[in-house]
């Protein structure tokens, strides 16, 4: 049976979407439907001069946008919130054709930007309002913290959540008064382009949100050299390159990078729930979630019980190419990525690991399908033991003591996400506190942490610098101006006052301020 492309994804629609991408060279990249490998559209590729022009246009629009009262800016996102939800199915169609993920994940992804908008529509007014602080001399001085937009933010997004990472971080920067130049991954440029179209339909000024496309190393240098701040989501290796260049330019960068995330199942865990969690944690989005689980640590007393149920669940997953809610797991993003996942499994097996289930590509389903795979005997000298596989592959490990489980969970360069399962919540939370990770979910895999938009979410160790969400997720896109006012000339010795008596009065004044609490 041939696969019917979603009705909304017409050639004319795709041509309109990509017509926004500048390319004076006329160069294009063949953007394909993952399930079939067929070319969907020729994606224009931007030159350094195109990128520079995109920044000039965004900067001109940003100067006006920053003058809009915040209430007016937020009005755009109130309208956009409704538009994004009304068009969730079309967004999911585009996410699916370009990434190959299953329908459930595509729809869930389409909901992330509206959740982010909802949070900051409520929170931005108090975060961006000027905050009066005390000055050094009570009553006669004031200091006010004023938040100003950085200017134009360069956003670099990966392919695994192209709509969420392309839109949500940009929307937050826009709310703070910035312009945007976005570089999506070539493979997955369609859904963010649709997002920009919806934002403009909601009233976002034209020109404020630019998009440029091309291979990362071709686009990156010009983009970073023109940006006032960089928001990057992607691999740790690329994050290091971006961070170095941003550092040289003395601009800030938020780097949201990879993980090798552990799940610890405690001896009092509800095993059925933990298995259900692990199925999503390992195979959700075909294992291509930065916060997903690649290592599961099980107590000796529950190892066999968990393993039997988990293997059964993995083997009963429906895997396939479909634009409806049928398949529980979709494709990997590309044949190249499938090769990478396969190489991790083959390397593990060659070095002594055992495939409990799965382990093979599924060319019968499409060019980039791979089976849900569970391994035992994975060690740190294997690719799958030390580096991020980013596919539907997990290693099972047995531990004797909780201290050993925590040490194993922390034995990694990464620190993005962890998951702890147990019915005694105090005990589980105490264990969570000992895990070196920017996010830890108790009795969940990742959604509880990631969907808590009021709390910053980021990685530690080699998993990142900075965070999205929470107050810092918005404030990072602002510079602080310390506006200080001296109402009377009282600093320093007064005319006729000798320096000794000035110092005496200043020191006793400081003591009095400490005692009275006046600042
Ligand atoms: P990647 O680093 O290869 O690419 C990410 C983006 O950077 C793409 O748009 C790519 O074109 C661009 N890029 C590549 N080289 C560049 C360069 N030299 N200069 C500028 N841009 C460049 O990562 P990927 O394979 O696309 O994405 C998967 C990775 O992203 C995984 O490691 C995953 O864990 C990580 N990720 C992290 C988060 C998070 O929030 N921490 C979220 C999603 C994905």
UniProtKB/TrEMBL annotation:
The active site is at residue 256. The keyword Oxidoreductase applies. Residues 27-482 form the Aldehyde dehydrogenase domain. Transmembrane segments: none annotated. One of its GO terms (biological process) is gamma-aminobutyric acid catabolic process. It holds the Pfam family Aldedh. Keywords: Oxidoreductase. GO terms for molecular function: succinate-semialdehyde dehydrogenase (NAD+) activity. PROSITE patterns: ALDEHYDE_DEHYDR_GLU. The keyword Zinc does not apply. It comes from the Bacteria. Belongs to the aldehyde dehydrogenase family. This is Aldehyde dehydrogenase (NAD+)/succinate-semialdehyde dehydrogenase / glutarate-semialdehyde dehydrogenase. It comes from Nocardioides psychrotolerans.
